[in-house]
Every structure is written in structure tokens, then in C-alpha cells.
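Appendix C: a fully annotated inverse folding record. The material below is reproduced so that readers can follow the format used throughout the book. The structure is listed first as C-alpha cells, followed by the designed sequence.
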């Protein structure tokens, strides 16, 4: 077995173990393979091992990679920060966007989403750790933005996404995931049709699953260490 297939298999085992510990059905948590900085061949290898959903963070890199991989029926998630002048390529090529934190970006995505494509799945990014430098709305701002985004044509609000503070130990990360879970529960309680909680990465997917994650975004544990040029 190649290293990527082995990495995927190890992730599935971790997800299953965490689901069992949380008393949740295994099918509730899906795995997004974060392929940013890795070449087209790495994605092909993961696809051969059964992986179909991939995440990218940089528009220019992603556009070239998606083009090269058009022959495969893959699901693409844009998980990086979106600048307003880059909304068009994202709206035209991706299936999901995880980092929406402003109405202006949501409106531009909605306008640019081609009518022939299904609605673009959108997650609101919430900054649960209160870091000044991180994108995302505060937990208090998340529901008003979610309501507004849910009203836009060509978008389908699916839920929320977060990245905990990098300095968080596992207890602190878990508390931050729990904050996002409360936002998600409140959205459902008021009738928003959300079903996705995107939280958990290579180092903290167990804590995220214990707090209700439905989608973990894993790069390093599948593809190895990233090298930025
Ligand atoms: C890069 C990235 C990941 C993957 O992180 P790993 O620690 O390599 O698993 C997950 N989510 C986002 C938003 C990312 O930018």
C-alpha cells in the first residue's frame, strides 16, 4: 500500500474510534482530504484509494489542479480565506466554500454561481478563539450572517466551520469546538436547514468528533508535511 492510501486508512480508523467513543454512528462524519500544496498525482493516488472529497486553500493553485483533474468525478471544497476579487473562479469551479464570513463575499459568490450548476454549498466561518488575526465572525455574529446567507439565491447554507487557536491544548480546542456546536444547535433550533459542522484537522480530529463535528479536514495525516514554496 502506498503512503497516501495508508494515511487515509489510518484516518478512517481514527474517525471510527472517535465516533465509537462519542457514541455516534460512523457514517455521521465525513473525511475531507486537504490537498493544498500537493500535486495532482497525490490527489489521483488518494482517489484510487477511495477518497472523493478534496480541499484547497489557494485559488491560483486550485484552478490549475482542478483543471488537470477534470477527468475524475471529485468533490471540491474551497477552505482558504476568500478575497472579494477571487470569488468568481471559486463560484464557477467548487462544490463547497467553507470560509464565508462577510455578506459581501456571499453576495458575490451567489451572483457568480453559474445557473447551470447546483447551488454552491456554503459554511459560515466562526472565529471561536477570539484571535484578532483570524478570519471568521464572532459566535454572536454567526446566526445573523447565517440567516442572511440562507436567503441568497444560488447558495445553499449548510452550516459552520472553525479553526481553533493554534496555541490551544486539547481541552481548550474542545471548548472552542463546543462553542461552534452551540451556534450550530441554535441555528437548527430556529429552523435553518444546516447539517454540517466542519471542524477538526490532523492534530485534533478526535476532540472535534467528540463535540459533534460532521466533517474533518485532514491534510498532513494523509499527504505528509506541507512544504510552502
Ligand atoms: C491546511 C488546512 C487544513 C489541514 O490541516 P492539517 O493540520 O494538515 O490536517 C484544514 N483546514 C484548513 C482550513 C486548512 O487551511
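Designed amino acids, in order:
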Amino acid at each position: 500500500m502506498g503512503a497516501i492510501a495508508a494515511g487515509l486508512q489510518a484516518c478512517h480508523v481514527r474517525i471510527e474510534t472517535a465516533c465509537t467513543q462519542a457514541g455516534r454512528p460512523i457514517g455521521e462524519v465525513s473525511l475531507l482530504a486537504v490537498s493544498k500544496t500537493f500535486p495532482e498525482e497525490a490527489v489521483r493516488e488518494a482517489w484510487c484509494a477511495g477518497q472523493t472529497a478534496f480541499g484547497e486553500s489557494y485559488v491560483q493553485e486550485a484552478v490549475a489542479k482542478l483543471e488537470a483533474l477534470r477527468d475524475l468525478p471529485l468533490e471540491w471544497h474551497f477552505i482558504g480565506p476568500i478575497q472579494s476579487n477571487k470569488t468568481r473562479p471559486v463560484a464557477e469551479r467548487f462544490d463547497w466554500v467553507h470560509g464565508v464570513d462577510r455578506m459581501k463575499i456571499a453576495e458575490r459568490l451567489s451572483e457568480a454561481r453559474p445557473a447551470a450548476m447546483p447551488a454552491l454549498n456554503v459554511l459560515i466561518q466562526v472565529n471561536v478563539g477570539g484571535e484578532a488575526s483570524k478570519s471568521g465572525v464572532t459566535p454572536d455574529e454567526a446566526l445573523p450572517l447565517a440567516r442572511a446567507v440562507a436567503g441568497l439565491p444560488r447558495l445553499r447554507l449548510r452550516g459552520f466551520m472553525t479553526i481553533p487557536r493554534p496555541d490551544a491544548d486539547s481541552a481548550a480546542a474542545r471548548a472552542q469546538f463546543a462553542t461552534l456546536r452551540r451556534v450550530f444547535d441554535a441555528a437548527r433550533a430556529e429552523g435553518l436547514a444546516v447539517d454540517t459542522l466542519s471542524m477538526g484537522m490532523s492534530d485534533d480530529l478526535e476532540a472535534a468528533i467528540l463535540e459533534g463535528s460532521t466533517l474533518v479536514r485532514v491534510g498532513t495525516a494523509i499527504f505528509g508535511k506541507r512544504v510552502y514554496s
